[in-house]
Structure formats: C-alpha cells, structure tokens
Fold this sequence. Notes:
The protein is an alpha+beta fold.
Amino acid sequence: xxxxxxxxTLYIVxxxxxxxxxxxxxxLKHNMMHDFMTGLANRRWLETNFDRRRLRWGRNxxxxxxxxxxxxxxxxxxxxxGHDEGDAIIRFISSKILEALRPEDIVVxxxxxxxxxxxxxxxxxxxxxxxxxxxxxxxxxxxVDSELRVTISAGCTLLGEHEALQLAIKRADGLxxxxxxxxxxxxxxxxxxxxxxxxxxxx
Length: 203
C-alpha cells in the first residue's frame, strides 16, 4: 500500500507540473502575441494570423479595409500630465476603438510605447465600411482638461486582391499623414480615404 501511495503521489505531482507548464506556455504565447498595456494583438499576432483571416474573408468576396490610426495631441498629454496619464489615454482610446468595432474585426497596437493602432476588417459594401470608420472616429476621444482634448486621425485604404498587407498599411499611413495635418488645424478627429484600388467596392 505504501509503494502504491508513493506512485500515486508521484503521478499527481508530475501531472500538476505538466499542467502548470502547459499554462505557462499558453500565457507566454499569449504575451508574445499581445500588447502588455492594452491587451490588443501586436504586430507578431497580425503577421502570424492575417493570412488565415484573409482567406476566410476572401471566400465572401468582400473588400478588406486597412485603417491606420494615430492619437492626436498625445505628446501634449505626456508633456503636461506625465507618462502615466499618457498610458491611461492609450488604454482608454484602445478600449473605445474596440467598442466601436465588431468582434471579427482586427485591432493591433503595432509598436509598444507608441500611439498608433492598425485596424483591419471586411464588410459587404462601402456604406458599412464608412459607418464603421465614422463610429470609430466619433467614439475614440476624451477630454484631458479644460484646454486639451484627445482625438484620433486615420488613414483608410482597401487591400488589393493580391496585395501584401504591409503595402496597404504603408499607403494608409501616407493618408494618415494628411489627416494629421488637417486635425492640427481643427483639433478634431480627421480621416482620409483612398478606395481607388484594384478591389471593387459595391455601393
């Protein structure tokens, strides 16, 4: 009986260690694929998973939107209110972007410590795409103090049928640059579109 008890105890200990190791591996993999501050997917997650998502979306023949977002007045928040407040703003803006989107849409914080977000999604027509974009811009803002309001700017383009995702991101980033110039003048959320791609958009 004593020997059987020893074997049983040894089995339980080894099973528990195996379970803990599995949990730690899952947590490690999750941490490698997600931004620590916001919990959003990171660049590595997008590079690993986008091709499968694109294939699934492609079966419907729907356009794929690529949206590059930048937080307006973020440097002023850090300079005037400190980096802790800046981190809180990033978490808040990321949560509002998530709330404005659908569960199947992709939101990425590509650079740890940055104020940029990437959104990739698919929808049946241009009207739905514009509705989603407008909802993101309308919802993702906050007032820091009586003089400082944080909004977002965005550049939006469509991913070509055989185009590499990074090319579309680069194009959207160029559109974002012009949207940022406009937001500096108005202190409001701003967006620039470019839907002139080989992919047809059904109105």
